[in-house]
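A student in our group prepared the protein record below, which I am reviewing. What it holds is a sequence and that sequence's fold in token form. My question to you is simply how this chain folds and whether the tokens agree. Do not assume that whoever made the record got everything right. I have pasted the whole thing underneath without changing anything:
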Amino acid sequence: MGDVVPYLVRAYCDWIEDSNLTPHILVDCEKTGVVIPEGFKKKGKIALNISSSATENRLITNDSISFKARFNGRSQKVIVPCQAVLTIYAQEN
């Protein structure tokens, strides 16, 4: 059976945005394949805003979440393997 994480991330992300809230994921930066800009992780983790308004070319596949986002004013590529996602939540909650 395939991993359920990408399906849950897509569903929760849609539901959170449909509720006019801001979806964030908490990422374990120590997992293989995580690509984030240097200097933004804290204690091996990073919280990322994955809303459609904060990302460019967001793609949630069965393997990873990828997009471009601005960090300190610079557009940078982010890749998060699904196994590195610790949770998804609405920032406002």
Observations:
- Helices lie at 5-18.
- The mean pLDDT is 94.
